[in-house]
Amino acid sequence: MALQKLKFYSLSLVVICLFISVSTICAETFPQLEIMTEEWTPYNFEKDGVVQGISTDILVLMLEKVGSTQGRKDINLYPWARGYKLLKTKPNTLLYTTSKTEERENMFKWVGPIFEIDFNLYALKSRKIKINSFEEIKIYKIGTLRDDVVEEVLVKNAGMKVSDFDRVAANVFNMKKLAAGRVDLVPQAQDTTDVECKRLGLDPNDFEAVFLLHKTSMYYAFNKETPDSVIKTLQTAFDQLKNEGKLTEIFHSYGK
Description:
Blueprint: H1 2-29, E1 34-37, E2 45-47, E3 50-52, H2 54-65, E4 75-77, H3 80-89, E5 93-99, E6 108-124, E7 143-145, H4 149-158, E8 166-168, H5 171-180, E9 186-188, H6 190-200, E10 207-223, H7 228-243, H8 246-253
């Protein structure tokens, strides 16, 4: 009996040690992240003081799956340019939902892809604007979101400069300017156009996509100094959620 008790206590001690070791490893592997996003319905937005959206809900499940102590309460809603600047300069920062481009690929570390999306140039239908190439874009006044991926696309493919753009901190201002005729074109996704029209009381049928600007995949982007172990573990969690059908459920819950 004494021998059995000794074996039991020894086994219990091993289990406790393993638990402590795993907890220690998790604590070392998963630093507290500064989690940042912007207002971009239906992927990330604030409602009733809580950050929600497709990408947000997926991230919350990922953090739960890896045993992180962080969650929805730790997500900060910033103007895109501010979050993007912090992502480039501050360790242990996470910004979503972020387009992964050739220019950005080695600047950050990535988990995803969450989804693919098209960015088009939108105009008032009444203007009857027709664009067939990037070269033809230069003659128009374009409203852009400061430091957004479409600025990179326009600089690279249309030979434009950042100083050529009418830049704003949030997409809602672009739609106001487009509706008022203060800019000719606004680059954004169909989702954004519909949401901003609803928010501003505009008729989405008054606007049309006149040129496909960029097809891209959207990810969770991490500061380059983030440990590879963190990226690998979160990617594994993301893949598991996808295989379990959780991503599909979340997309459907937002009508996607």
